[in-house]
Design a protein that fits this description.
The protein is α/β, with parallel strands linked by helices. It contains 4 helices and 28 strands. An 11-stranded mixed β-sheet has the order 1-4-7-10-13-16-19-22-25-27-28. A 9-stranded parallel β-sheet has the order 2-5-8-11-14-17-20-23-26, with no helix packed on it. Helix 2 packs antiparallel against helix 3 and helix 3 packs antiparallel against helix 4. It is elongated, with a radius of gyration of 20 Å. The relative contact order is 0.08.
Length: 256
């Protein structure tokens, strides 16, 4: 049975699962689907187009599936898809998609701290930690297990690789390849995310392979030559292949 505070407003067409807690002054619009075991503390707004899974926490002021801040948006039927077991802290805002992709996606087991903004058509993976007041412009993609510190500004269309650590206060308009620490001003490669990789169970041998791969790639003036050398040195490493494929597919270029 859902617990809906008498001061909450739930549209009769909204679809709620079981065992949800809806606090006072929450507003849930029409065309919303919410799964089971979610908690909405006071003052949470769930807009049209939200598709929310199970076991999520929404803290006061969170606003989910907002109208995109994009002048191209003409009211098309789009969604914001939220997975399971996420924590959205105070004043987090997530826009729904536009005609570009039709949806904004946030995976599962993520922590989005206070005042994070996720713009239209972004795709966020799983196991992310995103610090206070970090902002992602439209159509950004973030792979699993990335850690992004506070007050980071990310340009539209950027890709962020898995297992990265981005230091606080950074701003960037190029892609961040996987497994690295990115920081300073202007932002640049600052080594391998060794502590993060060890916490995720990577062996010392694998970490050294990743480290040597970046030494090899960045040592070349022409990136594709470094990629070819790295693949030749480690033909059986899935981590090396991930790095090389990420860089090859980058449309905005990678930080260096």
């Amino acid at each position: 049975m859902n617990q809906i505070h008498p001061l909450a407003v739930v549209h009769p067409e909204a679809q709620l699962g079981d065992n949800n807690v809806i606090g006072p002054f929450c507003v849930i619009s029409k065309n919303v689907v919410i799964g089971d075991n979610n908690t909405l503390y006071n003052g949470v707004t769930i807009h049209e187009g939200a598709r929310i899974g199970n076991g999520n926490e929404f803290f006061p002021g969170a606003s989910i599936a907002t109208k995109p801040q994009d002048l191209k948006f003409k009211g098309e039927d789009t969604v914001a898809v939220i997975g399971d077991n996420n924590s959205f802290r105070e004043n987090v805002t997530i826009s729904r998609g536009t005609a570009s992709k039709g949806m904004t996606i946030v995976g599962s087991n993520n922590l989005l701290m206070e005042c994070v903004h996720v713009a239209h058509d972004c795709v966020l993976g799983n196991g992310l930690i995103i610090g206070n007041a970090t902002k992602f412009a439209g159509e950004v993609e973030i792979a699993d297990n990335a850690t992004i510190s506070s007050t980071v500004l990310c340009h539209q269309f950027c890709n962020i690789g898995g297992f990265v650590m981005i230091q606080g206060g950074c701003r960037f308009s190029q892609d961040i390849p996987p497994y690295i620490i990115a920081g300073k001003d202007p932002i640049r490669y600052c080594g391998i995310n060794i502590i993060g990789l060890r916490r995720r169970g990577f062996s010392n041998e694998t970490i050294e392979t990743i480290h040597d791969t970046y030494r090899t790639i960045y040592a070349h003036g022409i990136i594709k030559d470094g990629i070819a050398e790295a693949r030749a040195k480690y033909p059986d490493s899935k981590e090396v292949e991930y790095i090389c494929t990420f860089i090859e597919n980058s449309k905005r270029g990678i930080i260096r």
